[in-house]
Design goal:
alpha/beta; 2 domains; binds zinc ion; 6-stranded mixed β-sheet
Length: 279
């Protein structure tokens, strides 16, 4: 074996994408049906965590997982639990449950929503960080990055980074993309944004090499209120079959796009994606 092969291992890990967890708050009652699709109940979340524990998963914050890969200390049963937007349930419901199982979360905060009703306060964010959870950026105002100018994209990336770094007193290296949409401009801009790791909403696993160049885009599996325990088990344990299903889905979308035209395709695409894990 050559020296390079011994020192540059490849590692695959899974990131799940959560939003809020509803424990009966008024904030969630007022959400639209579309928004509620991404909100799960406290009982559902507890069942998910119980499953992860049973499967022997380790859930470090994202940055720690990537550091473990670089230092050759990566645990093969690693699962990253990410939470987008910075809703208050991240502090009141999610963190205590995670900690009950010895898990840690990766929170992506919309910096411009901090201290607003239904969202975490600066102090709550600081406390989560102190308790070992990862705190990262999810932009300043949560725009569609495909619909704003390059200058606006850059200020969303930089301002939110600075704002969170001021709260934490530490560098923020991870960013998750609001609304999941991005284009070639974004890919070029992130190279100058100061972030090392960018989470998208594209489904798939992450195969991270120790010697990979930064920054790079990471995949995530979004959790919805109809995601079943067996879907989760499948994502975690059946990587080969899930990869095959994702490839088939991509081919189907490609064919559809060419048959029915791009505009009509875009309108129905989200509906099909949302039904992927449905019975
Ligand atoms: Zn978001």
């Amino acid at each position: 074996m050559k020296k390079d092969e011994m020192t540059s291992g490849n590692h695959t890990f899974t990131i799940l994408l959560y939003h809020g967890v509803d424990a009966g708050e008024k904030f969630y009652e007022q959400r639209s049906n579309k928004e509620r699709e991404y909100i799960i109940t406290k009982a559902q979340f507890n069942n998910h965590l119980e499953l992860f524990k049973r499967l022997g998963m380790q859930t470090p914050p994202l940055e720690q997982c990537l550091r473990q890969i670089q230092n050759n200390k990566f645990a093969s049963r690693t699962l990253i639990l990410s939470f987008d937007d910075g809703e208050e349930s991240g502090y009141t419901t999610i963190a205590p449950l995670l900690e009950k199982y010895g898990f840690r979360g990766s929170y992506f905060i919309v910096a411009g929503w901090i201290n607003k009703p239904g969202y975490m306060t600066e102090d709550q964010i600081r406390q989560l960080h102190k308790r070992g959870h990862g705190i990262y950026s999810h932009s300043m105002t949560h725009p569609f990055f495909t619909r704003i100018s390059e200058a606006e994209i850059m200020s969303e990336l930089r301002e939110s980074k600075e704002c969170l770094e001021k709260i934490l007193g530490q560098e923020v290296k991870c960013f998750s993309l609001p609304t999941g949409e991005y284009d070639e401009r974004f890919k070029e801009l992130i190279a100058h944004s100061g972030y090392s790791y960018i989470c998208t909403s594209r489904e798939g696993y992450n195969r991270v090499m120790q010697k990979r160049q930064y920054p790079f885009l990471l995949h995530r599996f979004a959790i919805r209120n109809y995601t079943k325990l067996r879907d989760l088990k499948f994502i975690i344990n059946a990587r080969k079959i899930t990869n095959l299903l994702l490839a088939l889905k991509a081919i189907t979308f490609f064919i559809l796009k060419n048959i029915i035209g791009k505009d009509r395709y875009e309108r129905i695409r989200s509906g099909i994606i949302n039904n992927f894990y449905k019975d």
